Amino acid sequence: MALEVAELQADENQKIQFEDSDLASFWLNTPKKYAFLKNDVTKAVVQFGSTYVCEGTFSCMVCIKSKYRN
Question: How far apart (Å, rounded) are the C-alpha atoms in residues 18 and 39?
């Protein structure tokens, strides 16, 4: 994986793509030669998305189950 990171850092086309797009688009459009790195990054990013959804749902439940319900 360290070799893929070094190759990605040296790839000028990927640097340009990174500057021109958002983070999600960049990782979705990375070439297959960075597949292992892409999978690891995707797993890390997905965890934060699901945590955000969980926290949002919990906040809604707090409002529903509070004094506003009565």
Answer: 17
DSSP states of 46-65: HHHHHHHHHHHHHHHHHHHT
* Structural domain range at position 34: 2-64
- Could you report the average pLDDT of every consecutive run of 10 residues in the chain (70 residues)? 84 91 84 86 72 76 70
Going from the C-alpha of 66 to that of each of 25, 50, 58, 62, 69, the distances in angstroms are: 40, 24, 12, 6, 6
Query: Looking at this protein, which amino acid is placed at residue 29?
Result: N
Rounded to two decimals, the pTM is: 0.54
Is 34 a domain residue? yes
